């Protein structure tokens, strides 16, 4: 596949070549084949040269994609009020995974300070050294912010994950003539190529009606994200057992319930790559310099949480969640007559909530222990669709 995309710098290209050699060595050590999940893990997280562990800018106009907090501060301000209702039932602390540039944390902390929302501690788990450095600079004025390298063993409060699940390595599976196969990665003439092998049939357990899908159907399954949900459940459960205070996780991402994820028209899966604000489907293009993502199967994530002791608190579109949490009120804090100030915010709200933009494709899954969403979220809840 010939992709017409912006040329990287010589330093970036050198880093990508170093990562490619590392992946080739990994393939050679494993008899010429590794799972796609392992390839994606190395491409994103290999020390110093992986996409998230290297030094290149990821977000904003100079990066590869833009997230909701980068679009408008109203997103974080609204999340601050949603978190307030949950922290009142648990503990006044937030734990954010994958905090990006720190913009979401900045907007939440600023709104909490301005509106008197109690927030004693804001912890961030960040794997990217480049992003952690940016976060520390952005949040220097907030002494309650701390950084962690991993899950704490126990936690009560609110966990935030905005576009975290989609960046977790996925396994690729394809329906063969007689059985499902796992699609992995090999090297032919110095180039990465896909190669299929028989797989453990447990790998396709999350696919409903897998036997009914057509031969050649390719999709992703999410065992690593499922493991994340298992650890999240253990952390919140331990927090409740130790303190008597519950907790909740708000997970925002693009994806579908299983009944929509594995439709016939998605026979090529949802894997997508992002490079310099260009989207394309080739995960072998410049490893380490592009993001690789897949849509989230929210049914699988919800089941993983519940199986490990959490409760389903809510599931809804991003539009439904933000509007129920008071996004409209945040917008109207700026007078519509002040066109210069109001119109950019109104355009941002449109992007966050429009079905043609982020409003319906992005979903919000809330799971937790001994907490519930306030009543205003009831009309938006779509948990029945899981």
Any idea what the shape is?
globular
Radius of gyration: 21 Å
Largest sheet: 8 strands, mixed
**Percent helix:** 25-40%
The overall strand count is 16
What integer is the average pLDDT?
Answer: 94
Number of helices: 12
The H/E string reads HEHHHEHEHEEEEEEHEHEEEEHEHHHE
Structural class: alpha/beta
Uncertain parts: 57-63
Strand content: 15-25%
Keywords: Methyltransferase, Transferase
GO molecular function: methyltransferase activity
Protein name: SAM-dependent methyltransferase
Pfam family, one: Methyltransf_28
Protein described:
- With 386 residues, the chain is of the alpha/beta class.
- The strands form 3 sheets. Strands 2, 3, 4, 5, 10, 14, 15 and 16 form an 8-stranded mixed sheet that branches.
- Helix 4 crosses helix 5 and helix 7 runs parallel beside helix 9.
- It is globular, with a radius of gyration of 21 Å.
- About 2% of the residues have low confidence.
- Keywords: Methyltransferase, Transferase.
- GO terms for molecular function: methyltransferase activity.
Describe the protein's topology.
Layout lengths: L9 H20 L4 E2 H10 L22 H4 L1 H15 L5 E5 L5 H13 L5 E5 L3 H10 L6 E4 L8 E6 L8 E5 L4 E9 L2 E8 L19 E4 L1 H21 L3 E10 L1 H4 L10 E4 L2 E3 L10 E3 L2 E2 H10 L3 E7 H7 L2 H6 L6 H15 L8 E8 L17
Helix pairs in contact: 4-5, 7-9
